[in-house]
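Ticket 4471: requesting a sanity check on a complex prediction with adenosine-5'-triphosphate. Repro inputs:
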Amino acid sequence: MMRSKDATKKTSLKRKLKSASSAPRKKFKIESNNLQDLPWKSVTRPVETVFGGDEGILELEEVDDVEVVYEETDAGRVARFKVPVDESEEEDKQSDSDESDDDDEGSETAETDTFDCLAETLLPEWHSLGLHPKLGRALYSKGFLTPTEIQKEALPLALQDRDIVGIAQTGSGKTLAYGLPILNYLLNQKKPSSKRRRRLRALIIAPTRELALQVTEHLTDILKASKLKNDEAEPIAPGNKPPPHVSIAAIVGGMSAQKQKRMLDRGVDILIATPGRLWDILDGDDDLANEIKQIRFLVLDEADRMVETGHYAELDNILRFTLRQSDSSDQIDDGNAEENDEDITLANQETDLQTFVFSATLSKDLQRNLKKARRPKNPKKKDQPTSTLDDLLLRLDFRDPEPEIVDLSPEGSTVSTLKQGRINCLLGDKDVYLYYFLLRHPGRSLVFLSAIDGIRRLQPLLEFLNVQAFPLHSQMEQRQRLKNLDRFKTIPNAVLLATDVAARGLDIPAVDHVIHFQIPRTADTYIHRNGRTARANREGFSMLMCAPDERRVVKALMNSLGRDEQEIPELDPELSMLDKLKARVQVAKQIETAQHQVKKKKHERNWMKETAEALEVDLDSDFFTDEEISNVEAQKQRAKAAKIFGLKAQLKKMLAEPLIARGVSARYITSGTRPIVEDLLSGRGNTSIIGVNNDGAHSELKMVERKPKQRSKPKLTPQEKAQEKKKEKEKEKDKRKRKRNDVQSD
Ligand SMILES: Nc1ncnc2c1ncn2[C@@H]1O[C@H](COP(=O)(O)OP(=O)(O)OP(=O)(O)O)[C@@H](O)[C@H]1O
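Returned structure tokens:
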């Protein structure tokens, strides 16, 4: 019997004739009616055929000695497969319980060999790293044909068991730079038995829930892509599922802690966690604490962000479990140490812990400090860490005396495919400019605000203006946060209004624009916000919206990046267009204010009623009678509703009016200073503003003319001064001579 695995996942069957009698000590059993359960084996094909001539078939498998028998059941005639049982194999399996649930190890090896033959040609750069063949298969199927720069630098070191501090620009593939060595290690270990609970091997700590879930998804995806068989094609009955070779789990806040605890109880290999929830669970779970003491890999992803978001204490507590006993006396006391030491015994004697710290931003000072192999027992003032992050990272107990620092951060911390622009406008005009930008430059736009209130105000405003905008901030329920993130990912022209909770690590495919509606407080945040676009060598655009009061902050921000504020070109919107948009925004704001008042009133009334009921008190009958509600209040409500209705109608009319760029004739499409016929034919024309092209936001930038700086004259030495004087005298002499000659010739 043969089957082929192709891109369309179709299964074709062919009966293969082979003498059953040739098999020694062979018994037959009715295995199941599930095709997937049969002992399929890979068919090795000559390398030179590669994929040509196979018409899309990537893998071919065969199964020997399987007979199809039919059984009459209540549901009708059902085909079953009669499979031979090799007794010697059975005995071997009995004696080695670890291998017992290895459902397809034999065929996997054969298939792996097939891919391995091709891997050298298909993925030469990955192949030279010597990763597990399954990872080669996964990278190939994901289309990751070569490692990124950080992967090229970090992987060989990581695979030699070195500790690494990796700094590389946003979107450069840092997750796999630390993820592949972990997966490689685990895949090279024996497949765990279903009877024995697996022990935690790798702990990855990430600052935000979304980032932790994204890392989980990324690594799970690689594992899925590494699978040799298409498990989904024919689902295995529940209970029969073999344990995975590598199991990954995430524990983050905002989701059921009970469920996460149950998951941990079952045992996982790789745990990806946010510090807050991990510490909550660890606090009452000695088993997990003991497992963390024995881990093989510790990863801090976006370490600097963890300090910023106030997770310092939790992270510090968690990291204490990874310290070696002998190092405990070296710890820098922060005052919290005493209370924590009671519950934490520093018992980790394992010396093979490998530590990876990754971020797009880590200061040079910190990198230098990390290089110091051992901290002094009583650090002198000058040796003491200067920031919370320094402090935290210096507490890490690197087993490597010289952790390798791989710093690939670009000059000025700017990704080369990122274009930057700015809009200088009044604070009160930011809404209009934002609306203009979103209409003028369609695409997926991530708008950053520093305060949640701003998001609550902007979101309905944009919705009234027919712009699809989703909020994302820390006061939202986790489920809603993920839902909004998903919607933003799937809608190509959507807007995500986010606080800096989304600034780090989130890998959202094809974000076209990052807009700093409010200026970031630090240069690192600016870099990380920008890093949500222009990822993995794609083009991206970032725009600073700068009010007069914010100029100083922007200047300081740019200075700390070693750049001049004036280097960032300004966007050049058409003023007449802005006037039209301003009128729309004003009406939308009026609707928003009126609706907000109605909601507030309703909320207050409900709150008073509920409170009165809870306290079993009658509301003052003069103040709140049904009659009053039905008369005065109802009248007010009706008036408000009518006002909102009127405003909505007005806005609808305004939104229906086409926006036409200056110099364009919508009636005569081939005339005017900007004929639009070509845009219409090419499909490049903007659908919201007639007469402009969708050429990308950078096409609208204008360079601000910069006056060259006046250079002060360098000071001259007395000798130089004398020489200068001499030269001037000679020049004068020459001049006079020429004059005399001119007069004579006249
Ligand atoms: N070798 C590769 N070839 C092509 N794409 C890759 C490769 N490695 C990773 N990627 C893809 O690049 C994108 C960015 O990767 P990742 O999220 O790991 O970046 P990052 O450096 O961690 O970014 P950030 O600093 O913002 O967290 C992902 O979509 C990932 O799938």
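Notes from triage: The longest strand covers residues 76-86. Leaving this open until the requester confirms.
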